[in-house]
Amino acid sequence: MNFPSKLLENAVNEMSQLPGIGKRTALRLVLFLLNQPKAKTKELSDSLLELVERVILCKNCHNISDFETCEICSNPKREKSLICVVEDIRDVMAIENTGQFNGVYHVLGGKISPIEGIGPNQLNIDSLIEKVKNSEISELIFALSATMEGDTTNFYIYKLLDDCKINITTIARGISVGNELEYTDEVTLGRSIIKRIPFENSMKNVT
């Protein structure tokens, strides 16, 4: 792709690094921004810069937050003894949109995936184990996607908590195997949370 401007080429190259954005789509987006009033484009760039510089992770659950403790963890109406374990912020947003969960979350930051070089030490697993062992937790809900990586991560955490007397459950398999939570409709996801089952039962169903 030949560019009439090096500045345009640099912008397209940077934009094309975003997930799902190829060079042609990146070019279309950059040209769109270029044709907008400068003030409008500056608002976008300022918001992205502010996002990078000011957003932090909640000290309790590792969710993205504007403050040291996120709004969910600091909400006195949330059930702190009920923890839902998810992969990332998109899953928190998906579950919150169902309106069916009133506990708190623990964001792992990914799933165990040897193929991608992601091991347990690269995830927020140690802080979860510490939280369960040192706090009054009544139930831990596994809400990772129904994939091999998700199941592996669930089982790994389950074994680490083998000596803890807490209720460990997983969302019902109303979600198709291989599906990510963020792509599941709110009704199905909500029902899966409500009809969660003991994690031991889910292992018996794995063939």
Give a structural overview.
- There is one protein chain.
- This protein has 207 residues and is an alpha/beta fold.
- The protein folds into two domains: 6-54, RecR Domain 1 (Helicase, Ruva Protein, domain 3, Orthogonal Bundle), CATH 1.10.8.420; 77-204, Dna Topoisomerase Vi A Subunit, Chain: A, domain 2 (3-Layer(aba) Sandwich).
- It has nine helices and seven strands; from the N terminus they run αααββαβαβαβαβαβα.
- It has a five-stranded mixed beta sheet with strand order 4-3-5-6-7. The protein has a two-stranded antiparallel ribbon with strand order 1-2.
- It is elongated and about 65 Å long.
Question: Key features?
Answer:
207 residues, alpha/beta, Helicase, Ruva Protein, domain 3, Dna Topoisomerase Vi A Subunit, Chain: A, domain 2, two-stranded antiparallel ribbon, 7 strands, 43% helix
Please outline the helices and strands.
Layout (H helix, E strand, L loop, with lengths): L5 H10 L7 H12 L3 H17 L1 E2 L6 E2 L5 H4 L4 E8 L2 H10 L4 E5 L18 H9 L4 E4 L5 H13 L6 E4 L15 H9 L2 E2 H6 L3
Parallel strand pairs: 3-4, 3-5, 5-6
Antiparallel strand pairs: 1-2, 6-7
Helix pairs in contact: 1-2, 5-8
The tally of structural domains comes to 2
Strand order in the largest sheet: 4-3-5-6-7
N- to C-terminal distance: 49 Å
Which structural category fits the helices and strands? alpha/beta
Along the chain, the helix and strand elements come as: HHHEEHEHEHEHEHEH
Number of strands: 7
Main sheet: strands, sense, barrel? 5 strands, mixed
Inertia-based shape: elongated
Number of continuous helical runs: 9
CATH class of the largest domain: Alpha Beta
Q: How would you name the oligomeric state of the polypeptide chains in this document?
A: single chain
Which CATH-level-2 architecture of the largest domain? Answer: 3-Layer(aba) Sandwich
Name the beta content range: 5-15%
